[in-house]
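In this section we walk through a basic example: taking a raw amino acid sequence and producing a predicted 3D structure, encoded as discrete structure tokens. The instruction is simple. Fold the sequence below.
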Amino acid sequence: MANIKKNFNFRNGVQVDDDNLLVTSTGLVGIGTTIPVEALDVRGNVIITGFTSATSQNVGFLTVATLEPTKIIGAGISVVSGIVTASGTGIITFFGDASNLLGMPTSQWEDVDVGLGFTSIYNTGGNVGVGTEDPRTTVQVGGNVDAGERGVGISSAGNINATGIITASSFVGDFTGNIVSASTFSGNIDLNADIDVDGHTNLDNVSVTGITTFTGDVDLNADIDVDGHTNLDNVSIVGVTTFAGNVDINADIDVDGHTNLDNLSVAGVSTFSSVIEAPAGMNKVPSLYMNQSNLPSAVDYHGMFAHVHSTGRGYYAHAMNWYELVNKDLYGVVGAGTERYNIGITTISDLIVSNSATFNGSFNATTIEVPNATVTSKLGVGTTDTPAGDLQVTKSSLAEIQICSTGSVAQLNVGKEVGTSKTHTSQIRFGGGAGAPYSASGTSLDIINYDTGNFNYHLSGNNAGAVAGDFHWHKGINSVRLMTLTGIGGSLGIGNTQPAKELDVTGAGNFTGDVTVGNNLTVGGALLGNVQGTLTGNVSGTLQGNSNTTVGISTLNNLTIAGIVTAAQASITSIGIGTNPEVNRPLRINDAVDERIFVTSTGSIGIRTSEILPGVVINAITSNVSLGGVGVGVTQFTAAVDLQSAGTAANRFVILPRVSSTAGLQNPVSGAVVYNTTANRVQFYNGSSWGNI
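The resulting token sequence is shown next.
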């Protein structure tokens, strides 16, 4: 056949077996795959004996026996192991610690890893010189300072010798040593610590801005100009002294004569044994504290008045306690909420209470605003008589109770509990609520029973036989009636208000589940969908459903069976009901895991699971099984449950259900048996309680 000219044309590609060779309609060739993504997509090893030319390549792992490139272009080359030799005039740049490179100059530097996430180098011995070939210290820049040369030397002990000028933004640490020669400081010297001068000191111009302490005598023959704070521990003044600025004195001052102080600042505690006097209209001694916790003891400062900045209120000390006098509220609210005030009047035109209010007796007011009020008796609005209930609103015109929230939810709770636990209570609310899908818009009205009881609607609760009304659902005011439940007969009309049957729907209906009809089903129009049971009547058009033909031959094309199939004999390779069959599961029913049944090619059965367990023939661990009898290890039943030959001789025993307590078991029946792991006993239920066996 080699001398015969051949020409084959295939449209829409070529495929050899499943995945040996595939040529797609777009010209992609796949070898070892049915989904090529490139012009040539090979899944497996490739052997090429001839010359191969490629413009560019991306190779994940490349093994080359002999490499003779003219040049290699890239971001870099990493060699795991081997020898790299540079030849010619080219330059090779290496990155790494170079510990195994040959031909490198010897060095006393070594790489060290101290656990900082990176490595550092250190000198294993000798000195380091910069700008010199003869270093005499550990690190030396320039000449040897100890030999009178100019330079800088740093020893391993931390000493620094420098012949030049040292300039630094700051100096931290103790200054030890003597200034052996005259020193000139051209700038300001700011000393924040002590200065110890043992000898004579001549200071021509000293400006002291902080505290200065002199432990010995100071003889001043000239003026002292103090612009800032000065602390003098022991000063003896024999003549007249005038202080033009502030004087801060932290020690005792003993003045026997008259003292005129224009501006006195006392930083510590001052004790005055007599009355403090000041000119009329200017006797001001402020008592200000930041917080109530800063107030002094009311026992020691009985009768003191103080202002607390954080609360903006005034207090006075009396009977070992601080009592509030007044606060900054615009309405002049007095008290911290614990004081009681007895007002000798019974009629108030307008009463506004910013916190809680308690009324123990009768109280008349035109307007009351109380955010948190407690009424120990009954409250009546619009009546002077004793209210009939805890809350009574009586008016000849419109009587209205409003619960309004301008920025959140307005709600009314009715129940048997106080608080927000929502266990034994109900609620009518407006404005939405978290967790309710149709109540999150802020415009919804909800009626909720948080308890587990009924939600009851009653008509004519006083006399059921005299009922004359119905339940109506409206859309708008005096508009469309959506639904009506009649009070007489209990008929429900959807889309109409006069139902003729128990359920009367005007319009279309949609049922997503099963519909059970106990009697005849009369359909005026077309019946669309599946029919289960006996269908009496003629079928015109396409029959979509089950067909039971006892005679003749039925020919069906493109058969899709959603119901029951009865066949005397059937030879089928694999079956999928509600899903597709698999190679190792020739029989599969349903696709959802919790509804799935399958039979494997080895005979294993899975019920409501997708897992094939090794050694388990039937896996139905998530399902319940109802059987007429059970026999394990036997072929002839001698009882409803026959376990006499179950297992082997080594494991022929039965493990009962294990519980730590029978208190959590629900709906037990007489004869139930469990093993209590807490009591280590087998227990049975006699119909009313659990007992030990």
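Looking at the output, two observations stand out. The chain has a mean pLDDT of 76. The chain is about 0% helix and 20% strand. In the next section we compare this with other chains.
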